[in-house]
Amino acid sequence: MEMIAFLINGTFVFATALIFAALGGLITERAGVINLGLEGFMVSGAFTAGVVTYYAEQAGMAGAAPWIGFLAAPIFTLLFALLHAIASVRFKANQVISGIVVNMLAASSTFFFVKLLFDGAAETPLLQNVFSKVSIPVLSELPFVGVAFFSLYPVTYIAIALAIIIYFIMYRTPLGLRLRAVGEHPGSADTAGVRVNRLRFLAVLAGGMIASLGGATVTLTMNSSFTFHTISGQGFIALAAVIFGRWHPIGAFGAALFFGVAQAVKDQIQVIEAAKHIPNEIFYLLPYVLTLVVLIFTSKKSSSPAALGVPYEPGKR
Questions:
Q1: Global pTM value
Q2: pLDDT tens across 220-243, in order?
Q3: Distance between CA 233 and CA 226 in Å, rounded?
Q4: What is the DSSP code string of 297-316?
Q5: Domains of the chain: which residue ranges?
Q6: pLDDT beyond 60 at 275
């Protein structure tokens, strides 16, 4: 039972970054814009969190440093989200290519800035202040559920709350109705007075900023520094979570947890004596193999927004 409790806890830990990124991708794609740039947004967020947290530590703000880095991530990532929005919405460029460019630009530029800021080093210095798990009083002391659900990183609680908030906005408010409308039937939404391209533009910016929190989470919980390999494809796993979750906030949240299980299982299996003879590379393959398997079996059942990837021309309704 104890191992299961730690497995559930580890699932939430590893899934937190994916939840943020999947929710960011969901908002953008629900508005009708393909968000292949999730990887780049996460890289940007991871870089910003690492650098800002480090300099906040040097400035004597040790206790607040992780939060400063976490909140700074969306601000810097706004530049990359703006690039994707201008290219895909304003100039109606191919959205897939635009996302790939964002990924490449984020990876190369952040690597360059790390070398520039830290005298040619390939990574930021190891952070002295990162997030620690927060145990909820009384509840964390309960057998099994205390370890499994009530001793998590503070950003995990934020990710869970954000999923609920986005669900409420998307399905219980006029803004959410408009957002879904521009992704399904932009012509009808335009006729009803919704400024389609403006809403899509803002959705790309919001999605990129939220996805960056996923990258910041990786740096400030599991890595304690930023390197070129910090994200390592997690943005694409988050995109798979959006598809697997059928473009629904709770579905994407559940899919992120599902992929988080693979990471947690990897850590649990590695401590078992019988598994120590298995090469580590096999365990690192698990999340990506699981992603491919899920996409193979769910791609035909997934129904994306009708206007996803289709630029909107106001004169053509």
A1: 0.94
A2: 998 899 998 999 889 999 999 999
A3: 15
A4: HHTTT----TTTT----TT-
A5: 2-126+149-298
A6: no
Q: How many CB atoms lie within 10 A of CB 172?
A: 10
Rounded to whole angstroms, the Cα distance separating 182 from 133 reads 40
pLDDT surpassing 90 at residue 133: yes
Cβ-contact 235, 42 below 8 angstroms = yes
Q: Residue 184 in contact with residue 305, Cβ under 8 Å? A: yes
How many angstroms separate the CA atoms of 35 and 235, rounded? 10
Quick one: which of 274, 256, 253 has its CA closest to 264? 256
Report the length, in residues, of the chain: 317
Q: Are 41 and 211 in contact (CB under 8 A)?
A: yes
Main-chain phi, psi angles of 135, to 5 degrees: -95, 125
Are 43 and 109 contacting, i.e. CB atoms less than 8 angstroms apart? no
Please say whether the beta carbons of 241 and 257 come within 8 A: no
Class of the domain covering 2-126+149-298: mainly alpha
Closest of 86, 81, 90 to residue 37, by C-alpha: 81
Neighbours of 164 (CB within 10 A): 12
Half-sphere exposure of residue 168: CA atoms within 13 angstroms, side-chain side: 6
CA distance 106 to 91: 21
